[in-house]
């Protein structure tokens, strides 16, 4: 019996030693060689900056997606529509010292960014060792003002054309009534 016990203890110790020796190596720490602009994009009075990243084996795909993400970040700075919904439910039941309260709170928030970024430029690109591409895009605030003024001008032209058509219709009506 002692012999069986010693064999079991020996096998257990051998199994323990083997399992400890094959522990997986710790995961590599994230790269700390990232450029400063990735972790702290510049802040300027005359431009918006956005940084995006994307990991792909295909450099072109990674660059395109990272650029799109950076532009989306700028769009969120320029114009964001926020929709929010809150559901709250509370129920209390029981008698005097034996009361139970059930509470439920659910909050849902959706943000949609929408902006036309004509004139935005990629100013920095960096590719990490793991294939992640980082892109910084700049959008000058003067380009935003120009786009807004152009849209306002187009709207004013549309309004002027509508007024012209209304005047013509009134002249036609006056001419018909004069007959």
Automatic annotation (TrEMBL):
Gene3D superfamilies: Acetamidase/Formamidase-like domains (3.10.28.20)
Keywords: Signal
Organism: Marispirochaeta aestuarii
Domain Lipoprotein LPP20-like: 35-137
Record carries keyword Aminoacyl-tRNA synthetase: no
Keyword S-adenosyl-L-methionine: no
Classification of source organism: Bacteria, Pseudomonadati, Spirochaetota, Spirochaetia, Spirochaetales
Protein name: Lipoprotein LPP20-like domain-containing protein
The organism's place on the tree of life at top rank: Bacteria
Cleaved signal peptide residues: 1-23
């Amino acid at each position: 019996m002692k012999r069986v016990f010693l064999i079991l203890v020996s096998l257990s110790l051998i199994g323990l030693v083997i399992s400890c020796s094959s522990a997986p190596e710790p995961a590599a720490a994230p790269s700390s060689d990232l450029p400063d602009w990735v972790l702290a994009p510049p802040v300027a009075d005359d431009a918006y900056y956005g940084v995006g990243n994307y990991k792909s084996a295909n450099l072109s795909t990674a660059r395109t997606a990272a650029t799109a993400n950076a532009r989306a970040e700028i769009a969120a700075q320029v114009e964001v529509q926020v929709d929010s919904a809150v559901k709250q439910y509370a129920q209390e039941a029981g008698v005097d010292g034996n009361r139970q309260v059930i509470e439920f709170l659910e909050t849902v928030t959706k943000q949609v960014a929408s902006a036309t970024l004509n004139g935005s430029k990629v100013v920095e690109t960096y590719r990490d060792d793991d294939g992640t591409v980082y892109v910084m895009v700049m959008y000058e605030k003067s380009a935003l003002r120009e786009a807004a003024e152009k849209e306002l001008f187009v709207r004013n032209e549309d309004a002027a054309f509508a007024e012209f058509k209304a005047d013509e219709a009134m002249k036609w009506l006056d001419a018909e009534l004069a007959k």
